[in-house]
Specification:
Helices cover 65% and strands 7% of the residues. With 295 residues, it is mainly alpha-helical. The strands form two sheets. It has a two-stranded antiparallel ribbon. A two-stranded antiparallel sheet has the order 3-4. Helix 2 (21-27) crosses helix 3. Mean pLDDT is 78; it is low at 150-155, 181-189 and 199-203.
């Protein structure tokens, strides 16, 4: 009985007094050859007998072992829900669709799995369909509700970035600025605050002093660079907005007039100049042809 599978149990439940090999394929949505193969496998297990009768029809009948399996399945289908039943429903809700995938995820015997699958189907938690010699399962609404649906996995938490000494110094500067904007609160704070790098691991007092001096030097360098850049920008601004002298203004006006006159003459006499070039080209070409004939 340990060789029993859910497909065997589902086929045994569909056998009646009129079952035959020739007509059984339409009942389980399977071709004739696959149906004959399935029934032959179940016959080897001893659950059914296949007998040929007049007219070439092969009747299918349950054996005592097959009837005993159906009785056990009926009894187990009336039992209350067990942990294995809930595990099967959760496996089905997680994407398992056939007995093989469920058996692989739960690692239970095929016979136990077959009885519990039949129990869940009878009690309305799931349903199945046989097609092409394979059984596929789906959850019913009752089964979906009892599983609590599939829990959405939260994304892994991002690791916290380590706090550096520069972060502490920046925070201390912000705290000083906020304390300056609220002088009354600053007066009430009597306990001096510890230096921002005091709580950092791996730094002794000498290392803390050196680190603080290094940061102060870098801050001074940054301030000096900013002052130089601002001075350069201001000087450029002054040069760009310097008022020209009267002589420079006269020269600029003279050049502007000359350029405007040149532009006028070019636009006014450009067609005549082009015509002159065309006539000159024709004249030179005629002279060249004449000289060529004389030569």
């Amino acid at each position: 009985m340990d060789e029993l599978t859910f497909l065997d149990l589902a086929i045994l439940k569909k056998i009646d007094a009129e079952s035959s090999v020739e007509k059984f394929g339409s009942i389980i949505n399977t071709s004739f050859f696959e149906t004959a193969n399935l029934l032959g496998t179940i016959k080897i297990k001893g659950y059914i007998n296949i007998e040929s009768s007049v007219g070439g029809i092969s009747r299918v009948m349950l054996t005592d072992a097959g009837s005993s399996i159906l009785q056990v399945a009926e009894q187990k289908s009336k039992e209350p829900m067990e942990p294995l039943d809930y595990a099967i429903l959760h496996a089905l809700a997680s994407g398992a669709k056939d007995p093989e995938s469920i058996q692989k995820s739960l690692n239970v015997r095929n016979a136990d799995l077959a009885y519990h699958l039949n129990k869940l189907i009878v009690q309305g938690f799931m349903d199945y369909e046989i097609r092409a010699a394979k059984a596929n399962f789906v959850l019913t609404e009752h089964g979906f509700n009892i599983t609590g649906a599939v829990r959405v996995q939260k994304p892994p938490a991002q690791p916290k970035q380590p706090i550096t000494l520069a972060d502490f110094v920046e925070k201390e500067a912000q705290d000083k600025e906020s304390a300056g904007s609220f002088p009354q609160q600053a007066q009430h704070s009597q306990q001096p605050s510890a230096p921002p790098w005091a709580g950092l691991p791996g730094l002794d007092k000498e290392g803390q002093k050196e680190e603080a001096q290094h940061i102060a030097q870098e801050a001074k360098k940054d301030d000096g660079r900013k002052e130089k850049e601002s001075a350069k920008q201001e000087e450029k601004h002054k040069k760009g907005h310097r008022q020209p002298s009267p002589e420079e203004a006269k020269r600029a006006e003279l050049w502007r007039r000359r350029l405007s006159k040149l532009e006028y003459y070019v636009l006014e006499y450009a067609p005549y100049f082009l015509l002159f070039l065309v006539v000159l080209g024709i004249f030179l070409g005629a002279i060249y042809l004449s000289l060529s004939k004389i030569a």
